Amino acid sequence: MVTLSACGSSGSGSGNGSGDSKTVTLVSHDSWAASKSVIAAFEKESGYTVKVLKDGDAGQAVNKAILTKDNPQGDVFFGVDNTLLSRALDNGLFQPYEAKGLDQVGSPYRLDGDKHRVTPIDYGDICVNYDKKYFADHKLTPPASFDDLVKPEYKNLLVTENASTSSPGLGFLLGTAAKYGDGGWPDYWKKLKANGVKVVDGWEQAYNEEFSGSAGGKKAKGDRPLVVSYASSPPAEVVYADPRPKTAPTGVATGTCFRQIEFAGLLSNAHNTKGGKAFLDFLISRRFQEDMPLNMFVYPVVEGAKVPAEFTEYGPAAKDPETMAPTKIAANRDQWVKSWTSLVLK
């Protein structure tokens, strides 16, 4: 676990639940990021110092938060998404709080209705990304759909994440279930397995080690030109490159996308509930929402929040992503993951 502490005034965490502590602790997945100036502005205005605990992939972080819910590591958890939401809610991970400004969040993202156990923060699309250079060099058309991925010409090219430990891996599984139906997705995965799909534990390994198209993957000599990642990954490759390329080195197979919504919530046994509530208000403030895209490469949920030009040019949101009702995810997820594990990993 990596521990980061943002700049700001020092404070003590009394851990008495009274809200008097001057430190508010955020528990999140490894992809959490925010501009120092934006965090510093929150600290100055609120009087709280922000401490961030990163705890692996989203799936791992959620599971650990559930296991430690009686004595949580922090006050606010960020990064539970629609694929894992029911697991968190059914285990009583969060206490209700209606964040200030929630009325500015689009209704399609407010999946917990009027219970307010979680606050929508961002959305994005889990999609297969491809290495443009590889496909150009091999004079091969990149795949565009789920159907394409099982064709012989794409054998041994795809790496995905474990659906039991990784939120993008689970999202990809749910995307195939939405596409092929309850009875059809296992046959699809049999074909995908026969076509040489590689499964690794989490996104960091898949994208930054195995995928040949990312900056990290190139350094690691990754040899898979297809990876389950996000529609917003191509802009990240442009933004972080020095010098910036005119076009993104990676592309998106737009027929493989599944819509992901991420939430934050006040942990049930938070030591600093007052600070946690203030931080949730901050997460849906326009300042944070407009800072977020180029830090975590996701889209804001607050209506009217500006999206950077790099997103429009290099990584527009999918026009027709696969979706699934939270109730259906809740009813089927665990059994589907169990079946997927037996089918794909054994």
Short summary of the structure?
The chain is of the alpha/beta class. The chain has helices spanning 36-46, 58-67, 85-90, 132-137, 146-149, 167-180, 185-194, 203-210, 215-219, 233-239, 273-283, 286-291, 293-296, 309-314, 326-345; strands spanning 2-5, 23-28, 49-54, 76-81, 94-95, 119-131, 158-161, 198-200, 226-230, 250-267, 299-300. Strands 1, 2, 3, 4, 5, 6, 7, 8, 9, 10 and 11 form an 11-stranded mixed beta sheet that branches.
Element layout with pairings:
Blueprint: E1 2-5, E2 23-28, H1 36-46, E3 49-54, H2 58-67, E4 76-81, H3 85-90, E5 94-95, E6 119-131, H4 132-137, H5 146-149, E7 158-161, H6 167-180, H7 185-194, E8 198-200, H8 203-210, H9 215-219, E9 226-230, H10 233-239, E10 250-267, H11 273-283, H12 286-291, H13 293-296, E11 299-300, H14 309-314, H15 326-345
Parallel strand pairs: 2-3, 2-4, 7-8, 7-9
Antiparallel strand pairs: 1-3, 4-10, 5-10, 6-9, 6-10, 6-11
Describe this structure in words.
It is a single chain. The protein has helices spanning 36-46, 58-67, 85-90, 132-137, 146-149, 167-180, 185-194, 203-210, 215-219, 233-239, 273-283, 286-291, 293-296, 309-314, 326-345, and strands spanning 2-5, 23-28, 49-54, 76-81, 94-95, 119-131, 158-161, 198-200, 226-230, 250-267, 299-300. With 346 residues, it is of the alpha/beta class. Helix 7 (185-194) runs parallel beside helix 15. The two termini are 29 Å apart.
The main β sheet shows up as:
11 strands, mixed
Radius of gyration using CA atoms only = 20 Å
What distance separates the N and C termini? 29 Å
Q: Give the number of DSSP strands.
A: 11
What oligomeric assembly is this protein in?
Answer: single chain
Choose one word for the global shape. Answer: globular
Helix content: 25-40%
Order of helices and strands: EEHEHEHEEHHEHHEHHEHEHHHEHH
Mean pLDDT comes to 92
* Count of DSSP-assigned helices: 15
Low-pLDDT ranges? 1-19
Give the strand content: 15-25%
Class by helix and strand content? alpha/beta
